[in-house]
Every structure is written in C-alpha cells, then in structure tokens.
Design brief:
It contains five helices and five strands. By secondary structure, it is an alpha+beta fold.
C-alpha cells in the first residue's frame, strides 16, 4: 500500500481538481450540475483574489482526493469559520486514512487561523460520510436550515 501525501494545491493542479470535482458530482448523482471549468478554478483559486483554498491528496504523484475550503466571518463569534465546500476521495483510496488526513489538515488550518468553527454539508442519503463525520465528533445542525437563491430568482432579487 502506497503512502499518501497531503499538500496545498497549486495552479498546475487545476485540471486534476476539476476531474475530482466531476467524480464527486458523479458520486452525488449530480454530474449534470457541474458548470465549472479549469479557467474558473485558475481564476478563483489561484488568481489575484483567491476565493478558495484547496488541498490535494496524492498517491504515487497522482491526485486521488481533495478538500476545497474557504473562510467566512461569524458576527456572533467575532472569528472566522472555515467552510469545507468539498471533500472527496476516489473510491479505491477510501478506508486508507486519506479523507481523515484531508480533514485533519483543514482542521489544523482552521485552528491556525483562529477559526471558532469548521463547517460543511453532507447529503442526507450519504450514510457512510455521515457516520464518518459523527465518529470525529461532528454534529448535524438541526435547527438551521440551508437556503439557496440561484438562477432567475437571484437575478430578480438583484435587479429589484
């Protein structure tokens, strides 16, 4: 079994990141919803004002997983929150500690940045992921419901 390496993503990883995003979307039964492309990743992850950070998990020099995250600021805690947008490990690499190491690296970054919270969302049907997160002490926020505004509704509000 080859050891894995967790490292910060660099611009040259944009193609690998996009491939892993597409694999995650396929796993989540949402392949048709991926609109991002390599240029988007380069612009918003590695451009003048990066909007996200990303860690890459490698085995033998090949990207097998990633954690893409960004920071928000909480008015209640007066500190940043690290939000994990995506955590994905290719099926053949699961159960080998890759996902746990990606989360550990994110947690260390959150602590180093004085974040009071580390948050993410998981699909309700993804029992393996939910069980994994619960085993780490994470909990499901039951009183806060996620909302989203997109498409024409977003445009309508912006133009009102």
């Amino acid at each position: 079994m080859s050891a894995h390496l967790i490292r910060p993503a660099v611009a040259a990883d944009a193609g690998s990141i996009l491939s892993l995003i597409k694999e995650l979307a396929e796993y989540e039964r949402s392949s048709d919803q991926v609109k991002a492309n390599v240029d988007d990743i380069l612009r918003d992850g590695f451009g003048q004002r990066p909007l996200f950070d990303c860690l890459i998990a490698e085995v033998d020099g090949i990207a097998v997983g990633y954690a893409l995250y960004f920071f928000m600021w909480s008015t209640w805690t007066g500190r940043a929150t690290c939000y994990l947008e995506d955590l994905f490990v290719q099926p053949g690499q699961r159960g080998k500690g890759v996902g746990l190491d990606l989360l550990r690296h994110c947690a260390r970054i959150a602590v180093a940045r004085d974040c009071q919270r580390f948050e993410w969302a998981v699909l309700d049907w993804n029992t393996p992921a939910r069980d994994f997160y619960h085993s780490l002490g994470a909990f499901h926020k039951e009183t806060w419901l996620p909302y989203r505004l997109e498409g024409q509704a977003l445009l309508d509000l912006a133009q009102a």
